[in-house]
Amino acid sequence: MSFAPVLHSEWLKIRTLRSLPGTLLALFAVTTAFSAIAGASETSDPEFDPLFMALSGVMPGQIAAISFGATAVSSEFHGGALRLSLAAVPRRGRWFAAKATAVALPVLAVGPVTALAALVAARAGLGDAANGLTPGEQVRGVVGCGIYLTLMALLAAGLTALLRSGVGALSVLIPFVLVVSFVVGDTVGGATDFLPDRAGQVVLYETYDGSLGPWSGLAVTALWTAAVLLAGAWSLRHRDA
User: Fold this and answer.
1) For 6-34, how does the pLDDT look when each residue is reduced to its tens digit (9 = 90+)?
2) Which of 91, 106, 158, 228 has the fewest CB within 10 Å, making it most exposed?
3) What is d(CA 200, CA 214) in angstroms, rounded to the nearest whole number?
4) Measured between alpha carbons, how far is 235 from 22 in angstroms, rounded to an integer?
5) What SS3 state is found at 76?
6) How far apart are CA 230 and CA 73, in angstroms?
């Protein structure tokens, strides 16, 4: 079977699995709502970054993207679904590539729309504080945000395939991005700039310090994601369905 029909079948699974469209809706709603709240909040921080403030809803919103990637893959490990999938597509690498593509495309479509809505909602509250943002910076933030969310969804998909458990992947990633990364970052220093979430989030800032810029930060996140996807593909190829 060629790649196109495999991708089509995986897209049908994602479209018909009830929780997954709801997860994308949650991604949009949570990100936009938290950015609007952040934009309406007064701040006296001298290091205030208006672009990051406008896109700060991505911090809680990324949980939905992670959940989307994990759920899309973990559904294969219930009720013998993976055996049926591999019976239809014996070439496991092709099947996993189609699954990853089917995970990436919806998030890549929803992510920039979500970022744009968050930016517009937050700017309404920020008022004059956001007037210094250039069109280029805003476009970079919106596009980069969509890419970042897509990479985090794929990271979750790869980790779920590696662990063969959506719960296991979420138990690792959600505490990591919400707690561990920031705690370690405050104690270790510059090395944490290369963690997958912190590296990718550089694109959300108007100004940035450190060794990574917006696109090099996303490249680091992409390398983490590629490594985890390869590990997940290796696990799929060498373990029984």
Assistant:
1) 898 889 888 888 889 999 999 999 999 99
2) 91
3) 7
4) 29
5) helix
6) 14
